[in-house]
């Protein structure tokens, strides 16, 4: 039986409809489809009627109006459940009992993050404030689940349709916020830190002296361990390196530092890397462009990948700055305070700019879990953290998605409260294997 193209009818094809159907049918399901405003083109083809028009014997999704609108208002979605599947924008009619396209667009576009919200001390939208967290589905890739729910209904009605099988994958990412505790800090900063330590107000003076004199390894230098574990597990990996100036929240060495440059070049060559824009660069496009140029000077190539330091993602300003800086892939899409699926997706997807009502050339690569979230925000023990990681891997694996985790060299040194977390890292590397 030959596979046929799915036709989707809507009275008006808006950029929002084009974007949402592209993500669902191209990226997730792999169903060949065509949008049309002419119902006569449907004929006997498999079809979805996305309209309030009266039709008989057709597969219908009733629109709530979000995808035909423009600009930003407050649709105030209310979460309900179909069996165990959370939904919103529910309706009483149609082959699908909620506006699945609008719900997917709301999650993918991060619509709620354009609305007024109460930020944390760093201006971040918190996971605990999200609709997904409040509705109890942050740890579920709901856009993926909705898409497969839709596919099941379509294939039952139109057996000529075929759905692509997506293969589960995993990616470990390492944010190198501070490669060294004491090395490469400059004479004045090193002496100042030593004097504070001797006075009892700074970090361990004996440890600092031994590190500075080369008689012991820097406590943050866990790179050999990380490299060995990654190679042994066969993991796909990306490193993210900052090149900004030092400040209250930025502690990387000067970008001209020889030892730091060697680390960047080594792991860029071994695994691949991207830019870790500084805290100071957030909202300052000129600073971001300067840091991209520094990265290019060190590696020999411009960065096309980035993740915000402190996960300082503001919609859509951060992505506007990325476009100006030539960055094509963002790895910041996740929450600092909660694990889960910030956009309801478990795979890369294009960014839709609500402020400009268009699909952009930026690809968003969401992550599901971060070491700092588990220990510093949720205060989990290593065993409890392993349980959460397993839950996130299982949810990603079920939809054939990409499981992405964030780690830091400073969290894998078995010190400063991170005792036992190497075991968590090693368990993750084992569990995430395809």
Tell me the series of helices and strands, N- to C-terminal: EHEEEEEHHHEHHHEHEHEHEEEEHHEH
Q: What do we call the CATH topology of the largest domain?
A: TIM Barrel
Spatial sequence of strands, sheet with the most strands: 9-8-7-15-14
Task: Specify Rg, calculated over alpha carbons.
Answer: 24 Å
What is the mean predicted local confidence, pLDDT?
A: 93
Helical/strand content category: alpha/beta
Strand tally is: 15
> What's the CATH class label of the largest domain?
Alpha Beta
| Main beta sheet strand tally, sense and closure | 5 strands, parallel
Shape: elongated
CATH architecture designation of the largest domain: Alpha-Beta Barrel
Straight-line distance between termini: 32 Å
* Relevant CATH superfamily of the largest domain: Glycoside hydrolase/deacetylase
Please summarize what this structure is:
34% of the residues lie in helices and 14% in strands.
């Amino acid at each position: 039986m030959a596979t046929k193209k799915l036709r989707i009818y809507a009275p008006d094809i808006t950029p929002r409809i084009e974007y949402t159907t592209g993500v669902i049918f191209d990226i997730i399901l792999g169903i060949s489809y065509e949008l049309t405003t002419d119902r006569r083109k449907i004929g006997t083809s498999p079809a979805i009627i996305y309209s309030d028009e009266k039709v008989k014997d057709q597969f219908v999704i009733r629109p709530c109006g979000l995808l035909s609108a423009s600009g930003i208002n407050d649709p105030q979605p209310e979460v309900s459940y179909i069996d165990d599947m959370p939904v919103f924008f529910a309706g009483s009619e149609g082959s699908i009992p909620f506006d699945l396209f609008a719900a997917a667009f709301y999650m993918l576009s991060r619509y709620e993050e354009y609305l007024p919200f109460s930020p944390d001390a760093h201006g971040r939208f918190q996971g605990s404030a999200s609709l997904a967290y409040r509705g109890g589905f942050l740890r579920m890739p709901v856009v993926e689940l909705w898409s497969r729910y839709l596919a099941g209904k379509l294939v039952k009605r139109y057996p000529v349709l075929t759905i692509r099988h997506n293969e589960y994958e995993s990616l470990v990412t390492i944010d190198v916020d501070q490669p060294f505790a004491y090395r490469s800090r400059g004479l004045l900063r090193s002496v100042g830190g030593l004097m504070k330590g001797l006075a009892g107000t700074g970090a361990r003076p004996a440890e600092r002296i031994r590190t500075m004199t080369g008689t012991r390894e820097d406590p943050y230098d866990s790179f050999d361990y990380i490299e060995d574990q990654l190679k042994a597990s066969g993991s796909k990996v990306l490193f993210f390196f900052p090149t900004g100036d030092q400040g209250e929240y930025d502690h990387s060495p000067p970008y001209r530092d020889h030892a730091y440059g060697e680390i960047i070049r080594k792991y860029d060559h071994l695994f691949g890397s991207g830019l870790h824009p500084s805290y100071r660069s957030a909202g300052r496009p000129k600073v971001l462009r300067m840091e991209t140029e520094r990265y290019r000077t060190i590696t020999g190539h411009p960065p096309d990948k980035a993740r915000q330091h402190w996960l300082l993602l503001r919609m859509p300003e951060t992505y506007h700055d990325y476009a100006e800086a030539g960055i094509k892939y963002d790895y910041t899409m996740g929450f600092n305070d909660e694990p889960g699926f910030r956009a309801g997706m478990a795979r890369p997807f294009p960014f839709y700019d609500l402020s400009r009502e268009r699909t952009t050339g930026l690809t968003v690569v969401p992550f599901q879990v971060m070491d700092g979230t588990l220990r510093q925000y949720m205060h989990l023990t290593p065993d409890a953290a392993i349980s959460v990681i397993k839950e996130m891997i299982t949810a990603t694996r079920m939809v054939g998605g990409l499981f992405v985790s964030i780690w830091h060299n400073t969290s894998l040194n078995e010190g400063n409260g991170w005792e036992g977390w190497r075991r968590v890292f090693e368990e993750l590397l084992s569990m995430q294997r395809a």
